[in-house]
Design goal:
Layout: H1 10-15, H2 17-23, H3 35-39, H4 54-61, H5 71-92, H6 96-107, E1 124-127, E2 139-142, E3 147-149, H7 154-157, H8 168-175, E4 191-192, E5 195-196, H9 198-220, H10 234-248
Antiparallel strand pairs: 1-2, 2-3, 4-5
Helix pairs in contact: 4-5
Length: 256
């Protein structure tokens, strides 16, 4: 806790606040916000109405806190400082500098890896399901299967999702398009003694048909499907069109 950084003076106590916060267990998802960003009041617009003891909390985060107060008051300000840092963090990580810092953490898989077997341990990104604080905890997003997961550790599961926002995981892929993973078509097929389970097999056939239909539509619009695996060939489309024409035509008998 904070005691690790407490020395004989209050100035030493406050000078390590951000270092303490980032290095604390459970805060591994956060990156360090630049001091210049914190000192620019434009970046903090509107937060004074959302954080209790806003000015004291900001002073603590920016290492200029010098209020002589009792332990209870200090604890309240400390809680507000953590909340303030989280709200500013959501804004900071969509800036150029913030995206760069989060990119490094993403490359090192510091947010975890996708638990889905067919994603082959693809790294995850934190996201919030709501931009309003105290609504939902942080979730993890996989760019390969495009699904969300709960954090593996309980200490991460209590982090407010608003501290990362609903847009960050999409913005980072727009800024760094090379990071966009190819979508895998690998699927688990349930079997009993080597035979496909009928209900599951029927569902998979339906899903595959829908996916192929979507890929054909995208191809006609000259759009990249983003899927790995075999591409839908023009010949297959022509054969399907011919089959549909035969089914919709007459029965081949000549009228008398």
């Amino acid at each position: 806790m904070m005691d690790d950084f407490v020395s004989e003076s209050d100035s030493d106590y406050t000078s390590y606040w951000r270092d303490w916060f980032i290095s604390s267990r459970g805060n591994e998802y956060f990156c360090e916000i630049d001091e210049e960003y914190l000192n620019d009041r434009f970046n903090l617009t509107g937060l004074n109405t959302e954080v209790q003891y806003y000015q004291y909390a900001l002073d603590l985060v920016t290492d200029v806190f010098d209020l002589d107060c009792d332990d209870e008051m200090r604890e309240t300000i400390e809680k507000s400082a953590r909340h303030l840092y989280g709200l500013v963090h959501a804004r900071y990580i969509v800036t150029t500098r913030g995206l760069s810092k989060m990119l490094e953490k993403y490359k090192k898989a510091e947010f975890g890896k996708c638990p889905r077997v067919n994603c082959h341990s693809h790294p995850l990104l934190p996201l919030g399901l709501n931009d309003t604080p105290n609504v939902t905890p942080v979730k993890l997003y996989c760019g390969r299967c495009e699904d969300t997961y709960n954090p593996k550790s309980s200490r991460h599961a209590t982090i407010d999702g608003a501290y990362f926002g609903t847009s960050f995981h999409n913005i980072i892929f727009q800024v760094y398009p090379a990071l966009i993973p190819s979508k895998s078509t690998e699927r688990y097929v349930p079997r009993v003694y080597g035979f496909k389970v009928h209900a599951s097999a029927a569902l998979i056939r339906w899903q595959n048909a829908k996916r192929d239909s979507m890929r054909r539509r995208l191809k006609k619009m000259d759009m990249d499907t983003g899927f790995l695996g075999e591409e839908v060939e023009d010949e297959e489309e022509e054969e399907e069109d011919e089959d549909m024409e035969l089914e919709g035509g007459d029965d081949g008998r000549v009228a008398m």
